[in-house]
Design brief:
Layout: H1 6-17, H2 24-28, H3 35-50, H4 54-77, H5 83-97, H6 99-102, H7 110-126
Helix pairs in contact: 3-4
Length: about 140
Amino acid sequence: MKKQTKFSELKNIFEILHGPDGCLWDKEQTHKTLIPYLRQEARELISAINDNDYAQMKEELGDLLIQVMFHSQIASKKGKFNIEDVLEVLIAKLKRRHPHVFSGVKVKSSREIIKNWNKIKIQEKAGTQSLKTNYF
């Protein structure tokens, strides 16, 4: 029997909360009704970072993760995407934007890494970037 990860446990909790016997308040939320909470949690994380309060940072990062899970769950119910899709897009983006790690691109400095990152980001936004990780 495969041990359940904390992430799979979290996904299961969100499925229960949004299921037939779940939380009415959770099920009533929309992307727009959650915006104030997203802003609040981001501000609280920034405050914890500025205070160098690692215990509070850990809690606030969890609260931001709740937002990610919430929005993914809402989108999933609408058949738009789910948390696995979010992770897939994130993983592909990280690999694309780190060609010096994943595609053998040679760099000499952090400045060059940032320059490459911004170039890739511009190409992505312009729609010229394919999903391949080798761009240079």
